[in-house]
Each structure stands twice: as structure tokens, then as C-alpha cells.
Design brief:
By secondary structure, the chain is of the alpha+beta class. The chain has 6 helices and 7 strands, in the order H-H-H-E-E-E-E-H-E-E-H-H-E.
């Protein structure tokens, strides 16, 4: 193994995360990009426009994702969730528990982002939007629990024991997040 002198870098010009700032073009160093020069994935990879990849399809088939909410100090808070995406309505549903960080964050600031990844890791989709929360409910037949029943039916069909489900939704203090999707993007890299 060859050791490099302190402060030096390999001859590739790449550091641990990419090229040195001085090695970037003037355009690449500018952030945010000038108007009309978007750095969105479709602009970085123009062939995506002709790709058959549909990030909404990946959202619809995924049952595991990462929900990003905004902490009081402005930093992101990430939570693994089991989402259901209603493609026709452009709405994402997530059942969560009252008192968790994501629930408190959404009550303070309803902006949210959900990211899902394909099982092979080569495709991803992100949905951004504004969330509303319903619940928790105290009555197993109240509107808050009915919203969770409707969500379950859309996501998984009929439950084997609706009485038990309703009881657990109350005792666990479950809340239904409904996020209206404003923007979807993603990519298939292989």
C-alpha cells in the first residue's frame, strides 16, 4: 500500500466525494444555478425523457419508504414507513402513531417528502407534497378510525378481523397521514 504525504490526494483528481472545487467548471461551481439552468435529474440526464421509467409506478408498487419531515430546527427527520400511493388521486397514505417525531413535525409543518427504492436498488422515486393528519380517534367507529379502515382497504384489501383492527387503531393512537402529491421525480439507473 502506497502512503501519500499529508494533505495530498490521489492523482485521479477525485477526493473522497468528487472533484476538487477548483477542478469544476465555473457553471458547476455556481449554486443555485442561474435561471433557466435547472439541475434537476431530467436536465442532467436528458435521455430520461425518452426512458420508459415511470416513478409513479414505483411509488404505487412500493410498500416501504422513507418519509422526510422537518424538525423544529429546520433539519430533516427521516422515518421508515409503509406507504400506500393512490395513483389516480395523487395521494400518499401512511398510518403512524401519535406522539412520534414525524407526527409532531407534520402538525407543526405539513411539508413532507417520501422516497422509495426498487428492491434491486437501481430505481428510486420521490414524491413531495403537503400532508394532513386525521386522528387519533377515541371511538372505534368514529371518523378517525373509519379513515384508517378506508386506508387499509385501499392498501391491503379486507382485514380478517375488523373489530380487532378498530380496537388496535384506538389503543395504539393511530393517525392517518394523507399527503397530496405536488411533485414526483425519480430515475432508473440500470
Amino acid at each position: 500500500m502506497e502512503l501519500l504525504p499529508a494533505g495530498s490526494r490521489p492523482s485521479t483528481g477525485l477526493g473522497p466525494v468528487g472533484p476538487r472545487r477548483e477542478e469544476l467548471t465555473a457553471e458547476a461551481r455556481q449554486w443555485p444555478p442561474p435561471a433557466g439552468n435547472s439541475r434537476r435529474a431530467r436536465d442532467v440526464a436528458p435521455d430520461m425523457a425518452t426512458s420508459s421509467f415511470d416513478p409513479r409506478a414505483l411509488l404505487a408498487e412500493s410498500r416501504l419508504g422513507v418519509l422526510a419531515t422537518i424538525k423544529a430546527d429546520g433539519r430533516p427527520q427521516l422515518s421508515p414507513v409503509m406507504p400506500f400511493y393512490d395513483r389516480e388521486a395523487e395521494v400518499i397514505y401512511v398510518s403512524m402513531t401519535e406522539g412520534r417525531a414525524k407526527t409532531a413535525n407534520l402538525r407543526r409543518d405539513p411539508r413532507a417528502t417520501l422516497e422509495v427504492t426498487s428492491p434491486d436498488g437501481y430505481s428510486w422515486a420521490t414524491a413531495e407534497g403537503v400532508a394532513t393528519l386525521v386522528g387519533p380517534g377515541a371511538d372505534p367507529y368514529g371518523p378517525e378510525v373509519e379513515a384508517l379502515v378506508d386506508y387499509y382497504r385501499k392498501a391491503a384489501g379486507e382485514h380478517p378481523d375488523w373489530e380487532e383492527y378498530r380496537s388496535v387503531m384506538v389503543s395504539d393512537r393511530r393517525v392517518l397521514m394523507t399527503m397530496t402529491v405536488d411533485h414526483v421525480y425519480g430515475e432508473k439507473i440500470r
